[in-house]
User: Fold this.
Amino acid sequence: MPNYKIERNEKYHTGVLIGFGVLLVFLVLLPFWGDKSTMRLATEMAGYLALAVMWNLLAGYAGVMSIGQQAFVGVGGYAVFTLAGLWGVPLIPSILLAGLVAGLLAIPVGLILFRLNGAYFAIGSWVMAEIFLLLTAQSDYLGAGSGMSFPTAVAKSFGNSTERAALFWWIALAIVIAALLIAYLWLRSSRGLALTAMRDDEVAASGLGVNVMRNKLQVFLVASAVAGLVGAILFLGKLRISPTSAYDVNEWTANIIFIVVIGGLGRLEGAVVGTIIFFLLRGFLADFGSYYLIILGLIAILTMLKMPQGVWGLIYDKTQIELFPLKRKIVN
Amino acid sequence: MSELVNTIIQGILIGGLYALFAAGLSLVFGVMRVVNLAHGDLIVTGSFLAFTATSILGIHAALSVVFVLPFMALLGYSIQRAILNRTVGTNVLPPLLVTFGIAIILQNGLLQIFTADDRKLDFGNIEIASMQIGNISIGWYSILVFVCAIAIIAGLQFISYKTRIGRVLRATADDPEVAQVMGVNTRHTFSVAMAIAMVVCGISAVLFAAWTSFTPLSGPSRLLIAFEVVVIGGLGSIWGTLIGGLTLGVAQAFGGYLNPAWQMLAGHIAFIIILVLRPAGIFKGQ
Assistant:
């Protein structure tokens, strides 16, 4: 046996790590230098980024093209409104339970939907989200079609509106860091190797002993749990939830797909870059109403046709830089 | 009792229209192996076109097909030729993402032009006229829609098995590379398939636009219906599509009979049940 080991980190990764550390301190301290609207925007961005990281793992690696993740965002939102708002469960356990409920629901949903392959799974997942929407709209307990407001008394127990914004931002930051860490550690592990193999060629991967179905289910479960957490924190911030906003395919899936495609499908950094581009575009095009979705759609189509590796893919091809070191290199 | 019978008959009749929604989706999938996520929004585009033609020119709603069908054919051909052909034969993701992008663009484009208001085509007296059999009354318009649906599905079957273009389409569906070696221009064939699918969409768009009101946001629900019909009926069989349409129509009608709010839900649940029991569709794997 030749003596070799596998290395992932390059020299510049020490610098990247320091950079991340500085960024993290900067973000944790946001409530001390930013105002309420900045905190709310940052919370929203964190939620979108967490969804994008997970959707990238689903579609970019596991080949699970879900257009139904809004189902789990909605479930998370409603779960937290029920637990914290109606039943008086403390905030943090409520949010965690919301994620757990969404993740557990993903198991039966996945078992049914994975009978459909590829493109058919995509629409099947959308049908499932519609079922969730229609069932929620039937429930008088959950406020039926008009939805529910978060009880003011409970909201006030989390502090005044500025304190709440700060609290929700820290929770959202924790969620997005958790999502990034899960995705990163997953992809670095041997399971991640299996996922990367699936990304490149599903048939070949399964021929080499990768249990494709189990990997898909695992990713689907984790992605759905994160969607539940994101739904919980974002709807807490809004203090209002309704079936159409909770299970909105455009908001929770179309936007996320555009983020991932523009940023770079199948690359962890793609979700980050895509989220930044998305919010910049949204900021610039805010005055143009629904034109911004049209422009976003056009950019996504052009990216898919002309630059399928996305913005980060392009940067990577030119520089070979990875912010999250995943590439394996054999050294003697 | 007669109310229930009425409901089920109504379900069967609208099922024909659902089969038409699905026929286009199924054709595109059969030939190109592409699930067109913009399918529903293309149908709604057809409905708005019919609405515009009728209101600007003051013609009868049924006559709007003179404008709608050529436009839809052209639109289908161009979208396929200019955009979707670039994604055929790659893996599943690119065509899905691109058609999803097209869906969002169409939806928001229609929203900008026509606002979110409810619209409806007016077919005149035939919409309210009905025929009485004992206690049961069946609207003539529903019957007209059903007959149109059967005729078009039969027509698609005829094109597919009795004409040259049908042979070319089936050959391309079976193996695009061999078809190409045999002298088939697959890029053109794909585009023709999309054009035919869009003509079918155009017809169903006009018929459905008078059946119930529509908005620029109605596309996804049309897509989901079409998709459910295809899965229920089993892929590849055009008559299976008809059975799928009738099944979904009856399931929705029955749900709506129990509680008006359950109509769509009943259709979705019927779809899930059939997916669990017969993943390949009612027609396949017997």
Notes: The radius of gyration of chain A is 20 Å. The domain at 5-331 of chain A is CATH 1.10.3470 (ABC transporter involved in vitamin B12 uptake, BtuC). The interface with chain B takes residues 59, 63, 65, 67, 112, 115-116, 118-120, 122-124, 126-128, 130-131, 134-135, 137-138, 249-250, 254, 257-258, 261, 265, 289-291, 293-294, 296-298, 300-301, 304-305, 308 of chain A (CB under 8 Å). The CA atoms of residues 160 and 166 of chain A lie 10 Å apart.
